[in-house]
Amino acid sequence: MGSSSGQGGSSNYDVSFKILLIGDSAVGKSSLLLTFISNSLLQDTSPTIGVDFKIKLLTVGGKKLKLTVWDTAGQERFRTLTSSYYRGAQGIILVYDVTKRETFTNLSDVWAKEVDLFSTNQNCVKMLVGNKVDIESERAVSREEGISLANEHGCLFLECSAKTRENVEQCFKELALKIMEVPSLMEEGSTIVKRNVLKQKPEYQRPSGGCCS
Predict the structure, then answer these.
(1) Rounded distance, CA 94 to CA 22, Å?
(2) How far apart are the C-alpha atoms of 162 and 180, rounded to whole Å?
(3) How do 125-131 and 91-97 pair as beta strands?
(4) From CA 204, how far away is CA 37, in angstroms rounded?
(5) Backbone angles phi, psi at 63, to 5 degrees
């Protein structure tokens, strides 16, 4: 009974997208993700080991979206895991730290090449994000340089701060809106939802109430 109330289950959203966060270690990928997922201001996070992902439901452009955001370790020793991360991703956020020049140059030298190598979606939407704008006094990469690199690689561009929350939600929303403009990605995202709904067995219903973790 009551399955039409839409509690729990996969039918609560219209589209499901897989988003990746990539970039050097310590540029703030995990902080961006945690700031986006939670509503509280962040404490420092410890380095991600291998891979971690979080799910966020939000409404963008009149559609209910389920974003599965994969946070990847920036450290070299975890690089072997990467090709499987990229499989089926509709959006990729390339993060650098505006106070550390090297994290910016590595986007071209390392990360953009990796995206070309491993990304399975030709139309995958990419976004360049400069994090830590709250430390303006230590800025080592100008906004103009960021915009120019984004144009060069065909990426969207935003600067943000995981600490002050500035533009964090905007990153994911703008990326999602752009993905929704690409018919093949939209189709993929909708197919996943349909498949999940078919998989559900109506005769087994957990008591509703409480939050699904």
Answers:
(1) 5
(2) 25
(3) parallel
(4) 30
(5) -110, 145
20 DSSP β-pair partners: 70, 92
Q: Where are the alpha helices (DSSP H) in the chain?
A: 29-37, 82-86, 101-106, 112-118, 143-152, 168-180, 183-199
Summarize pLDDT for 158-202 with one digit per residue, the tens.
999 999 999 999 999 999 999 999 999 999 998 876 776 666 555
- Of 156, 96, 163, give the one whose Cα is nearest residue 130: 96
- In whole angstroms, give the CA distance from residue 28 to residue 49: 14
Tell the residue number behind the tokens 């730290």, with chain if given: 97
Residue type present at position 131:
N
Separation between Cα atoms, residue 58 and residue 177, nearest integer Å = 12
Q: How many residues can be counted in the chain?
A: 213
Q: What is the pTM of this model?
A: 0.81
Distance CA 123, CA 103 (A): 25
Burial zone of 11 (CB within 10 Å; 0-12 exposed, 13-18 middle, 19+ buried): middle
Is residue 74 a contact partner of residue 23, using CB atoms and an 8 Å limit? yes
Strand bridging mode 63-72 / 125-131: unpaired
Helices within 87-167 (DSSP H only): 101-106, 112-118, 143-152
